[in-house]
Amino acid sequence: MHDPMAPIRAEVLAQPEPEQVEYALDLMAYYLAPLPAFYEGCADMGLALANSELRMLHAMDAKRGRYVSLDALLAARCVDAHTDDWPSPDRVVSGVAMIRRRLEKLRLPVEITTWRGVGYCLEAPNTFRFEEGVVPRPAAPAVLK
Prior knowledge:
The chain has about 140 residues and is mostly helical. It has a single domain (about 5-130), classed as Arc Repressor Mutant, subunit A, CATH 1.10.10. Helices cover about 45% and strands about 10% of the residues. It has 6 helices and 3 strands; from the N terminus they run ααααβααββ. A 3-stranded antiparallel β-sheet has the order 1-3-2. α4 (about 50-60) crosses α6 (about 90-105).
């Protein structure tokens, strides 16, 4: 049976021994449910996503501009389930597809790029924050006089 924790375990054990516990605790904090402000902001924007998808979106937003591995997104998605019950990484792919559709529907200034077989990267302007709960509106066209 595939052990979805194997890459995460290897990542922790690759750290210098005195730093392994702290590194593992940092990973756990990273994968825990997003802050209430993140959830509330997404709800205020009308970004209707399942909790598992919100956790993946939060994980990508927390690493904005950098790739987040499929394993890390699977852990974020399934943090509330026993590892024996985790689905295949295909659920990450379908979850990201859903997130993309919802972001596009709201015309949010967010793009998620794929590094096939590795992970995903969320790009957005520095001025955009999900926690603010505001859907940016495009500027009105300049009026010529």
